[in-house]
């Protein structure tokens, strides 16, 4: 599960940077600045999700080792 969480974090970061660098004026002209905030939120929320996935994988490895 960890690769999926990392991929999500990277995807939000890439999309946010592309929007910020190449489409900032387009977003501002059309009133879509909230798209940048959505990307930032997706990026930041990914880190607690990554922590949950790391804990889940560690617990799963521990359970399989005991059985």
Briefly characterize the structure.
By secondary structure, the protein is mostly helical.
How far from one another are the termini? 21 Å
| Proportion in helices | over 70%
Series of H and E elements:
HHH
Unreliable stretches: none
Q: What is the assembly state of the chains in this entry?
A: single chain
Mean pLDDT: 94
Structural class by sheet pairing and helices: mainly alpha
Radius of gyration: 17 Å
The major beta sheet can be summarized as:
none
Q: Strand-residue fraction?
A: under 5%
Q: What's the count of strands? A: 0
How is this structure best described in words?
With about 70 residues, this protein is mainly alpha-helical. The protein has three helices and no strands. The two termini are about 20 Å apart.
Layout of helices and strands:
Elements: H1 2-22, H2 24-30, H3 34-66
Helix pairs in contact: 1-3
